[in-house]
Write a structure and sequence with these properties.
Layout (H helix, E strand, L loop, with lengths): L5 E7 L10 E10 L2 E9 L8 H7 L3 H5 L4 H12 L4 E3 L2 H14 L8 E3 H8 L8 H7 L11 H23 L6 H9 L5 H10 L3
Parallel strand pairs: 1-4, 4-5
Antiparallel strand pairs: 1-2, 2-3
The protein binds one DNA strand through strand 1, helix 1, helix 4 and helix 5.
DNA sequence: TGCCAGGCCCTCTTTAGGGCCTT
């Protein structure tokens, strides 16, 4: 089920692990039947100074990271946390490349697949003004009173958007539940073909 | 040497360009 997933978010030193960027914070929530049943949050020391831009963007300072556990230690714990769950992130391609890069450094891996709340939102919330996480939180009427660009808060907000998205799909296509496979198909289907794809699923089994 | 993300998605498209989204 797409409501039994781990929703995660990384804060990082920049945009690309291929350019030497590292993770500095991981936040995640585990959903069971659409309820948050567990959380994970940790700062991690990337072994390099972060830029003033990242300090301002995230509110995470070099002083905070100096006292944090190293990436290897945090990511090993996080790998245990995610287990075999499927994973969701907002713009999942970004978080997946950092997860893969950090786990590769400690010779760990995971079995779950990624779903993307950004791609799915573009196909479901057709009249949203934009698809950034903050915009979608407001668009879906989700309560928000924390700080965007911190990992756990963004993961919690992504979870709210994700659950609204699943509810919207269920209502729209009169389905009892949405499988993770359905979301993956949705993410790969061109926007203009989504209604046809979902209608086929509805006639068969979603 | 000099450069430096990468993928989705739309459109004045497909022999391409540019905005969005993530930090």
């Amino acid at each position: 089920m797409a409501s039994n997933v781990i929703i995660l978010d990384f804060e990082t030193t920049g945009l690309s692990p291929n350019m030497g960027d590292r993770a500095i914070e991981i936040g995640a929530v585990r959903l069971e039947q659409g309820q948050v049943v567990d959380r994970f949050q940790a700062l991690m020391n990337p072994g390099q100074k972060i830029s003033g831009f990242i300090e301002n963007y995230t509110g995470i300072s070099n002083a905070m990271l100096a006292n944090a556990a190293p990436c290897a230690e945090v990511m090993a714990d996080f790998c245990d946390f995610i287990g075999d769950y499927n994973l969701v992130a907002h713009n999942a391609a970004f978080d997946r490349k950092f997860l893969d890069a950090e786990l590769a450094r400690i010779s760990r891996g995971y079995n779950g697949s990624f779903g993307c709340s950004l791609l799915a939102s573009r196909r479901v919330f057709l009249d949203a003004p934009a698809y950034s996480l903050a915009t979608l939180v407001e668009y879906t009427g989700s309560h928000s009173d924390g700080q965007f660009h911190r990992a756990l808060y963004d993961a919690e907000m992504t979870a709210k958007v994700w659950l609204t998205l699943l509810d919207t799909l269920k209502r729209q296509y009169q389905l009892d539940d949405i499988s993770f496979t359905t979301i993956q198909k949705l993410n790969k289907t061109a926007k203009k073909n989504v209604a046809t794809m979902m209608a086929k699923l509805t006639r068969g089994s979603a």
